[in-house]
Amino acid sequence: MIKLDITSARSFLEEADLNKAFQLSNESLVHVHNKTGKGPEWTGWVDLMKSPNDALLNEISELAQAIRSDADVFVVCGIGGSYLGAKAVIDALAPFFPGSFPEIVYAGHHMSARYLNELVAYLSKPRNDGKSKSVYVNVISKSGTTTETALAFRMLRDWMKTTYGDEARKRIICTTSASGGALNKIIDADGYKKYVLPDNIGGRFSVLTPVGLLPIAVAGYDIRALFYGAVSEYERIAHDPETLVEYVSTRYALYKAGYKVDVIASFEPELRSFGGWMQQLMGESEGKNHKGLYPAVHAYSTDLHSLGQMVQDGERNMIETFLVVDQPIDDALLPADPENYDGLNYLAGRSIHDINTKALLGTSQAHHDGGVPVLSLTIPKINEESLGSMIFFFELATAVYVYNLGENPFDQPGVEDYKKAMFKLLGKDNA
Ligand code: PA5
After folding, report:
1. How far is the CA of 204 from the centre of ligand 1 (A)?
2. Stretch 138-148: mean pLDDT
3. pLDDT band at 62, cuts 50/70/90?
4. Residue 271: predicted pLDDT
């Protein structure tokens, strides 16, 4: 399903270093599967693939269908791994104009008062036909205590109760741990519907749990195809780990050779949010003890006109990973123009996707020639199955890569430091 091409990275590496990296990656892969590496208690995202919970997939699909038939707006309230996976899949599949219906909007992912005020004003504003908007809120927080999310949820809950009274109870769905955390207290007190994120799955590995599945299903996408796309990838890798091991080993050997930045780039703008999900998965998993490749997301060809110069000719410390799609969701032919003032008639009748592909190949060549090792990962097309497959591929690749680094992929101790400093300034008890 996923094709890897490392031809344009190979010349930057010594054969012996790559071979060593292969050996290490194979060992790390065994550690993930056998739960013998660091943080084995957080490898539940692999177990999910072994015994898919069809009843849960059906239940989520049914609830999503009921919400879809009534909602105008579905608010996903969460931060980091609690929303990036859903956003990655929804943005990849949703039409650009006007996007999914019901409209999926995000909250709890920062602390902008202006954003929250405008969101509440938008939810309060009647539809074009004069009727009130039908709003549902899905608050997602594994810990149930994350400040950004809790703060937004307090404001949204307040608005929901004022707007819908008792009916708010049916319109608020919570996804959190089985027990503990402030969100569980609120659920117990107000009686909201609750989905559980199992303790053995961390936020950034949780997109194939209710964390990601409910918002994705409400947006109208086939969560069964998504989930089973991941299961197929799991089975493929179990049968033949070559692609995964080659990808991780190349990336690791390049890191060991001194490269510091991994530019995750795609020529399909709808994959920008997928890059955002990868950025968090990789960044939060590997950035430990002063190690790790900094993951930077570029959406081409847009960013060739902002960051292309840096990639081509700036500090030579980056590798580039292209996410490539064989078949576009849609295509168009460039019309001929008798005047040809723009000089584009040499492209008349050509498909825009074909032109975009030539831009990709040209960019890859130019960046390679400019001293950037380039890796390409290609999927056949953007659909639920391929996205599921990429999700599992990158989750596993990240775990294996971080084991190669000798670190725990599943914790994020560094994230606590800003919280401690912030709580102290805010005067929180015991901060
Ligand atoms: O990957 C992670 O664990 C984090 O990014 C969390 O998802 C993020 O910090 C949000 O945490 P919580 O779901 O507890 O609100």
Report:
1. 7
2. 96
3. very high
4. 98
Cα(111) to centroid of ligand 1, in Å? 15
Burial of 327 (0-12, 13-18, 19+ CB in 10 A): exposed
Q: The whole model's pTM is what?
A: 0.97
Probe ligand 1: pick from 83, 138, 146, 398, max atoms within 8 Å of CB? 146
- The share of the chain scoring above pLDDT 70, in percent, equals 100
CATH of the domain at 110: 3.40.50.10490
Q: What burial class does residue 40 get, using C-beta atoms within 10 Å of its C-beta: 0-12 exposed, 13-18 middle, 19+ buried?
A: middle
> Are 88 and 207 in contact, with CB atoms under 8 Å apart?
yes
Q: Please tell me which residue in 284, 320, 384, 395 is annotated as part of the active site.
A: 284
Q: How many CB atoms neighbour CB 309 within 10 A?
A: 10
- Which parts of 33-78 are beta strand (E)? 73-77
Is the confidence at residue 430, as pLDDT, over 80? Answer: no
Residues 217 and 300 in one domain: no
Local confidence band at 27 (pLDDT 50, 70, 90 cut-offs): very high
Domain that holds residue 251: 3-37+226-404
pLDDT of residue 345: 98
For the cut 80, the answer to whether the pLDDT of residue 18 exceeds it is yes
Q: 88 and 235: one domain?
A: no
Q: Is the peptide bond before 386 cis (omega within 30 degrees of 0)?
A: no
Q: Across the chain, what does the average pLDDT equal?
A: 97
**Type of residue numbered 22:** F
Give the CA distances from residue 101 to residues 9, 79, 119, 259, 362, in Å, rounded to whole numbers and listed in that order: 42, 22, 17, 42, 37
* From 42, 87, 142, mutation site for ligand 1 pocket: most ligand atoms within 8 A of C-beta: 142
Report residue 164 as tokens: 């819908």
Comparing CA positions, the residue from 214, 211, 213, 192 lying closest to residue 201 is: 211
| Strand arrangement of the beta sheet that strand 103-107 belongs to | 103-107, 73-77, 135-140, 172-176, 193-196
Active site residue 419: yes
CA dihedral sign of residues 279, 418, 202, 292: positive
Q: Is 305 a catalytic residue?
A: yes
State yes or no: is 118 an active-site residue: no
Distance 142 CA to ligand 1 centre (A): 7
pLDDT digits over 297-323, tens only? Answer: 999 999 999 999 999 999 999 999 999
Domain count, the chain: 2
Could you tell me if 296 and 204 lie in one domain? no
